[in-house]
Specification:
mainly alpha
């Protein structure tokens, strides 16, 4: 019987732990950007929000794949 690879599991949980705050910060930043469309910093704040959301999605995907790999390999 195989056991869970703890190093790989820790790495996957680290990815998921980083993705959690990004998934909460991204929508907040986007909401703030869309409420202040006349402000000169609209485009940079909008870009930061989109980058945070994309990074959260990538890290969640990578984290889930790593956790599944740790359990089933």
């Amino acid at each position: 019987m195989k056991h869970t690879n703890k190093k790989v599991m820790g790495k996957g949980l680290k990815y998921l732990g980083i993705a959690l705050p990004l998934s909460l910060i991204g929508p907040s930043v986007l909401f703030t950007a869309f409420n202040n469309q006349e402000h000169p910093w609209f485009i940079p704040v909008l870009a930061i929000g989109f980058i945070a959301l994309i990074a959260a999605m990538i890290l969640m995907f990578k984290g889930i794949l790593t956790v599944v790999k740790a359990v089933f390999d």
